[in-house]
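FAQ
Q: What does a multi-component entry look like?
A: The components come first, one per line:
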Amino acid sequence: MARKRGRGMAACWYGIARTATIDRAAAWAEIDDGGSAKIVTGVTEIGEGILTVLAQIAAHEIGVKPEHVVIGDNDTARAPEAAHAGASRQTYMIGNVVALASREARKRLVDVMAEMWDVSAETIHTGNGEIWAENTNHRISMGEAVACAKNRGVVPIGSATFGTDTTGIADGKGGDGSGRPWQAYVFGCQVAEVEVDTITGEVQVLAVWAAHDVGRAVNPQGVEGQIEGGIVQAIGQGLMEDYQLKDGHTSTSGFAKYILPTSLDVPRVNSIIIEDPDPIGPLGVKGIGEPAMVPTIPAVMNAIYDAVGVRVFDLPATPEKILLAMREKARREAATSMQAAE
Amino acid sequence: MLICDEYVTPGTLAEAFAAMERHRGRYRVVAGCTDTLPWAREGRAGDVEIPVLIDVSKIPELNERQVGDKRVRLGAATPIQRFLDDAALGRAMPAMPRCAVWFADDQIRAQATLGGNVVNASPAADATPCLEAHDAVVELASAKGKRNMALREFITGPGKTQLAEGELVTGFDCDAFPGYGGSFEKVGHRRSLVISVVCLAVMVKLDRDGLTIEDTRLAIAGIRPVPRRLREIEDHLRGKRLTGALLEEAADMPLDLVQSRTRQEYRRDVVRGFLVRGLIAAAKRAGASPDALTQELEAAYG
Amino acid sequence: MVDIRLNATINGRKVSRDAKPHLRLLDFLRDDLNLTGNKEGCGAGECGTCSVFVDGVLMKSCLMPVAKAQGATVDTIESLAKSGELSVLQKAFHKAGASQCGYCIPGMVMAATAALRANPFADREEIKERLGGNICRCTGYQKIFDAVELARDVQNGRLPSTALLETDTADGDVIGKSVRRIDAPSKVSGRLKYAGDMIMPGMLHVQVLRSPHAHARIVSIDTSAALAIAGVESVITSADVPGKDGFGVFVHDQPIMARDKVRYVGEAVAAVAAEDALTAKRAVAAIKVVYEPLAPVFDPDEAMREGAAIVHDYAPDNITKHIPIRVGDVEAGFAESDLVIEENYSTQAIEHAYLEPEAGLAYIDHDDVVTVVSPSQNITHHRHMLARIIAKPISKVRFIMSPVGGGFGGKEDMIYQGMLALLAMKTMRPVRLVYTREESIISTAKRHPSRTTLRMGVTRDGRIKALAMRMVCDGGAYGLSTEGVMRKAAILAAGPYNIPNVRIDTFGIYTNNTPSGAFRSFGALQTQFATESHLDIIAERLGLDPFEIRRINAMRDGATTHTKQKLGSVSLMRALDAAEQASNWEAGAPTVRGPTRGDLGHDDVRPSVTLGARFAADDKQEAAE
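Then the predicted structure of the entire assembly, as tokens:
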């Protein structure tokens, strides 16, 4: 058979938010005129979909629709600090702090309405742009509620800060590395199915099954997007990408030589989202951006081995590396069987 | 960055030659520009200042196309995409659509020209081995007149051709091979926008029963300074009964084809496999009988 | 220069105006007509962010001199939703979650539009083939294929147009629902302005002079000829830095432009602000720098040896960071193992290749606040560092994070914002810098290349008794995130497994190579590649299924990590079970079972690609004949 298939798997773990340091983020929330929500925080979107996640979280906490959330962000002079966009920390750090700020804003509004309606605040509910008190006829729109609050001199705002209970690790001279680098860990596992063309040495990754714990999926489609994108970046590193330097000069300064996976080089990705809620943060969310990329390469290398019996120890597994390793293996086996015959 | 002071788009050959004469020593001829613009960037030529660019892609003679049963004549400005869009052309040059689908991408194919691919004379050019398999003749013209030259003489080395100062490639005159099955095998490091490490053009004509090879054409590139026609293999196959053993025999002919400085062993292995795989694919499209091309053979090389 | 009088129909409107002869169609659309929806991702036809229709045919406008558009009809991404109503395809991209950073998306939407025009019934494989000229770095393409299939089916009436609408959240619970992305409409329509799309009145254009040497002393820099060029407003070097120079995520070892010596090829040496980019480019070429080459060091193992060239005086051993992890006694662990396996692994440098090359604007606002607008992943820290570098109070420095066209860690470094701030302060005018793809590749951080030796000891029943790993990473010329990468790599190196004896050492090393920095998966990718490959090697030797060997060693609830942290709930077993079940994994030891496996080729596996999906119909027809 010219095309040989095989499967491999690998597991991973990863820490969420900044490593071995205390992470922190802040946000402001306001329930605005007309019953929309206004969220302000320091650092958001780099493409992962955090704006939508924050809108969902604010909508959920305040009781409005996601499309009625406005997010002001990303300006060190106009928004509270939220640190940086990286370390798989956005949903965890900023999602949680936006939830806390939203809760405070909602509480301000609910307290006003409880007083007005003469009910206890615990009996008041919000959702879908409405606010109501259980077992009563009191039910008005959030916009009307905001007007009520403002008539009583209250602007329903909230603010919050969220920090992690983490430490550095003992990595100084003679240290053993002990410490509490993260408060949330995630785990994952991927299976890859590959086809190796034994005439060219090309590897096609036909499918990846990716099971990842994300704590709680705020937006499942967004989680899938992170998993799919991470896997394809990993396949790029595993099979083709190679920034080459000779005496400090690169020969791969453009996309003709530094090649990336195209639409024809990617597997079908089957994502399985696992929800093991984080017990510390208010939402139970964790993160997915980076962990999604970790098990792919070893799963693919294990699958190549399963298909053709050669293992690549030095990335990337280019067609010539695979083919030459196969030839080498065949030569070795021929020599062994010859010896056996003698 | 490519910087020019003037961009000239002549409407006729005469205007083109006049512009070339007028700007002698200060111009560069361009057509699709899909290589010229990336060339003038860091990592290749860097910023390049060329006083005058002369764009010949609008000249009518360079856009002609005559598709006959025996001959195909294509203007030099023919975009590669035409091999996919023009069914008659695809029938006359049956490996070419298979080559075109591997050529850069849908968009660059609409811009890149056949003439540009030849004049660039890249050892990894995809279209040139196909043309070579058609015994293409390069048509050249200058203010002084016209001349023709076989493609294999025209390309003399990587980036080198016999194009003279003041001369343009106007078109290609090729043998037509209607009724042949075509294939194009190519490998690089990915599957789109990919530069060939090895590429092979194959055409096969079988008898009515799909059992005997009446004729075949093979040409290979990516493995040596210039594309090479594989006449030895063609001669070996012509007139013989199509069997897996025959194809393997042909692939094992000791031709020492690989002259690249890098990846030699790899390329040698691929060439052998491609010869069998390409012949099978072309024979299949030429209507090979299942008696000749067994499923086992297809699985072993397909 | 002989300008071209260009007459064309662009997005349905007649355009008649003069254009410089060297412009590409992309420049004309973006700079002259301010149609910034289509982007420049690479300038070499290799990415597709610039794809536009020319007389109805999709082309890469970075490969087309503007003169070729003479008399043509050109349609850009802006043409698809002219009235504000998104096209079916754009709505499908919105619905399917097909945009992430959004930078490739205008070109991708154009390519998808072309694909469905070419074949309104194209299947998924043909769609893939027709999108082959457009690179996406974020999505992994899956949701893009989904979107095109969705649009196809809606257009063909196989699905109702309601399939494009928002997920129903009427029950009020919006968490856990795939709500459509709120930023997608502006991305699929090309309306979102990235830093390189922004213009300000009176704006100057910046170009950077870069080092041609990997290691050299700067003897002198003469900027006089550059300053003499008409249109040049300012030329800066490290001598113009008013405060304490130096940035970096952990150690502030990198000056905003090379100071006294250059440490890698591509390092910024000087920067020019001029009325237009071409003038700035010519001024850069006119700067004269005299270098005295120094012995370089390119190999991290060599760099650690006595007598190697020293990259930074403060680190005479060239070690940027060493991270140790110690648990138990590894030698004792190996002694009680039945099988000990040692292998070497290596990983290469890779480039983030976000489709948006670095770009930024800086200006001084009405309150004298130095303001930098750029796709920075860390505006908080950049503000701190810049304030010190330009000797201003933090309140007088403002960073605005423009939409990020892909980051992946590569935009955490303050690699060019300092130059922008300085030039804005010098000229008191807005300044803008847009990197070329090549500049982005040669001068910004890479993923750390690594060399790892891994030794693992197990008992016959598959229990890991000891793990020793030593990884040496090439950190390149500057520290950037190396310290953090080494730390995360080490902490996670042994995998989520209970191992009583562990010795891990990761080393980040200075060399004269392109700096390495933050990259998605931050060191954990390198170390876990080794560990997870190794487990399969051992599983084969022991005759264990790969899932089984991992389960035997898996951390469970309440486990203690290798940094001696006690965990609460551990979801590893759930992940293993889920992947095993979803893939219908056939159990068995990894003994090259591929040829005999029974679990291959299910419905959730894509077909093998052989180019020519568009011929499939023809081939079938031929076969029928």
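Q: Is there any commentary attached?
A: Sometimes. For this entry: Chain C touches chain A through 161 residues (CB under 8 Å).
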